[in-house]
Write a structure and sequence with these properties.
By secondary structure, the chain is of the alpha+beta class. The protein has a domain of 105 residues. It has three helices and seven strands; from the N terminus they run αββαβββββα. A hairpin with a 2-residue loop joins strand 1 and strand 2. The chain starts with a helix and ends with a helix.
Length: 155
């Protein structure tokens, strides 16, 4: 039984992606990528794994939006669309059960069961932001963010 658990852990470890870091994806399955759509309009994608929640991944995507805004000489960005895909499930779950049967002395018994559920794709998630970068005073819009202020949130 111990060998089965060790082999399962090694298998899951080999299939799992690396940790979710604030870094370019560079063809991997974790990190950010961005694409320019128009002169000041960009699509940002941030892929993460089970080691971060959707909320944490969205924070990382906003950090990328703020960094990109400052890199392009902007002061603020407006989120024109936002979406996410994936879930917060864990790729490995363990469950158990206990059973008891009753009858006369010849037919009673008990049992214990242990199960391991493997779902290597569980927990993978993606956040998409489409932003417009602007300069000068920030518009009075609840979907506009001061890039420097967003970076202060991250500290």
């Amino acid at each position: 039984m111990r060998i089965l658990i060790i082999c399962t852990a090694l298998l899951v470890g080999a299939c799992a992606g690396g940790p979710t870091l604030y870094a370019p994806a560079n063809g991997g399955n974790r990190g950010y990528s961005d694409q320019q759509i128009e002169e000041n309009r960009f699509r940002i994608r941030f892929d993460g794994g089970a080691d971060v929640s959707l909320r944490e991944l969205e924070d990382l995507a906003f950090r990328r939006a703020a960094d990109l805004t400052l890199e392009r000489g902007g002061d603020w960005f407006l989120v024109v669309s936002r979406a996410n895909d994936g879930d917060d499930q864990r790729p490995v779950s363990v469950g158990g059960s206990v059973g008891q049967t009753f009858g006369n002395s010849r037919f009673s018994g008990s049992s214990v069961g242990l199960g391991v559920r493997l779902n290597p794709g569980a927990g993978d998630k993606t956040v998409f932001l489409e932003i417009v970068i602007g300069r000068g005073p920030r518009p009075d819009n609840p979907q506009s963010y001061d890039a420097r202020e967003v970076l202060r949130w991250q500290d």
